Amino acid sequence: MRIFITGASGFVGGAAAKHFVAQGHDVRAMSRSEKSDAVIGSLGATPVRCDLENVTAAHIGDAEAIVHSAAFVEQWGPKDAWFRFNVLGTRAMLEAASQAGAKRFVHISTESVLWRGQSLNGADETYPLAPNSPYPYAATKAQAEMIVKAANSETLKTIILRPRFIWGPGDTTLVPAIEAMAKSGQWMWINHGRAMTSTTHVANLIHAIELALTKGDPGEAYFVLDDGVRSMHEMISGIAASRGITLPEKSIPAWLADAIGGACEAAWGTFGLKSDPPLTRFSAMIMSRDSVLSDDKIRTEMGYRPVISVEDGLAALPRPLAPGTAIPT
User: CA–CA distance from 38 to each of 8, 9, 47, 193, 233 (Å)?
Assistant: First the structure.
């Protein structure tokens, strides 16, 4: 199959590109720079120089399927960035894919499309979207889902996948953040990390993407999850341990974290500070609220089953080299 991937220089898109190349597919990937060209080329895919703001049918070429994983996922940034990339960028990708004659569009979304600040307990795909969420990332990803669903047609079939807490080898967000905060002494739990969460190992998400290229009810959304539910403390401590890090047990209550996040955003916005705030409202919220979801739908309709367990995934995470260990050449 000829597959066009966005976000291939990142965590999920890169894992997808590597997997589909290994499976013998013709993989092309959106690339915005020479650096991205090199990353994409190292995966065995063909870089195509374009971005979400200028992509055309010519860039898509004769690709049969699109895997759209690119998004603005930062918790702080220019006010219009989330809308430009997550909403307008998704619309541009759909238009280019349709004009190019692609047959399948797999959109990588997130459970964040449901967040308004509440806990989620047992939520499934019937739970209402939050396009007016107070959190820009959540709001714009929900709006993007609505566009993807509306774009479904007989000629371009769309499928929406919603992972939660993506983790695994190659992570470019969570592990670096843990390492940086641990090194600086800034790490602190919220509510002692007691919030319960569903999770999605990247290998399980790639398996779901592969299923979605040929299966699923077009126009529908599907949660993609690991087996079981765990506390934030268990998951994050386990990931940190893989890097030889023991996180301190310092903790603050959720109400205080929410207040600090709001105050930080107000100060950074007022004074136009260029650095990222130490805490945002969104990060305070997702670390302190339960996010327990149901993926019965994808298991029933696509036959999805996790290909790796949480326990095996944690055990397989890359470990730091012991002092004095020779690096293979």
Answer: 11, 9, 8, 38, 36
Give the residue ranges of the chain where pLDDT is below 50.
321, 323-329
304 is catalytic: no
| Crossing angle (nearest 10°) for helices 281-288 and 254-271 | 160
| Number of C-beta neighbours around residue 262 at 10 A | 15
Q: Do 17 and 4 touch, CB atoms closer than 8 A?
A: no
- Give, as one character, the DSSP assignment of residue 111: G
Catalytic residue among 135, 137, 222, 304: 137
Q: Give the ranges where the chain is alpha helix by DSSP (H).
A: 11-22, 34-42, 57-60, 81-82, 89-100, 136-151, 174-184, 202-212, 232-242, 254-271, 281-288, 296-302, 310-315
Read off the pTM.
0.95
183-185-186-189 Cα dihedral, nearest 10 degrees: 100
pLDDT at 180: 87
